[in-house]
Design a protein that fits this description.
four-stranded antiparallel sheet, five-stranded parallel sheet, Leucine-rich repeat, LRR (right-handed beta-alpha superhelix)
């Protein structure tokens, strides 16, 4: 709607807005300030691309996704606050933000796309990498503590262990038709903290997770 409106200097987005769509303010070269309300859940691709006068922006706690190239080419952007609600920073999200001196990557971020910080300062890129490594280490440590605090609830395995596990090692439940199903709950994780439920599996063992480091199993009551 405002794509390429070079005379736009500021705007307040009302609380009725839930999404800032693709190219919404792209090329608004005079846009120096913008207020994003807590109602906004996602910032679409190229939403603020090429807003060369935008110096700072605060993203509310409601936003979970910063889409591709959302702030690419914002050459005046010196600071930005990313809340703990954000889980995805998509590809090229901040590429070409040559004035961006620092950014904090919260623990909530699980995915950063290719070239998300391309053509930014080397010190900024180095800082982002350091934060990601530290975040993963913190998640893993917290996950270990969580598992150790309640060892009776789940049995913990690596992915390779559960793939090679014999049927006799698992709990079977007879069905009215005379067949058997595996009677357990299974979750998968890469950091021992964030667990993704996996579908209940039946014999034969198929579709077991291959891309996760850990699997936890709990027999159904």
């Amino acid at each position: 709607m405002f794509n390429g409106l070079t005379s736009l200097t500021s705007i307040n987005i009302p609380n009725s807005v839930t999404d800032i769509q693709f190219y919404a303010f792209a090329g608004c070269t005079s846009l120096a300030s913008i207020s994003i309300p807590n109602s906004v859940k996602s910032i679409g691709g190229y939403a603020f691309a090429g807003c060369t006068s935008l110096a700072s922006i605060s993203i509310p706690n409601s936003v979970t996704i910063i889409d591709e190239s959302a702030f690419s080419g914002c050459t005046s952007l010196a600071s930005i606050s990313i809340p703990n609600s954000v889980t995805i920073i998509d590809e090229s999200a901040f590429s070409g933000c040559t004035s961006l001196a620092s950014i904090t990557i919260p623990n909530s971020v699980t995915s950063i796309g290719d070239n998300a910080f391309a053509n930014c300062s080397p010190s900024l890129v180095s800082s982002v990498i350091s934060q990601l490594v530290a975040n993963q280490a913190n998640k893993f440590t917290a996950g270990q503590q969580s598992v150790m605090a309640n060892p009776g609830a789940y049995n913990l395995y690596t992915t390779s262990q559960i793939q090679n596990m014999a049927v006799g090692d698992l709990v079977l439940n007879r069905q009215p038709n005379g067949g058997f199903v595996l009677n357990y709950e299974i979750d998968q994780s890469t950091d021992l903290q964030t667990w993704t439920p996996y579908q209940t599996l039946s014999l034969p063992l198929t579709g077991l997770p291959t891309d996760k480091a850990f699997v936890r199993i709990k027999a159904k009551q």
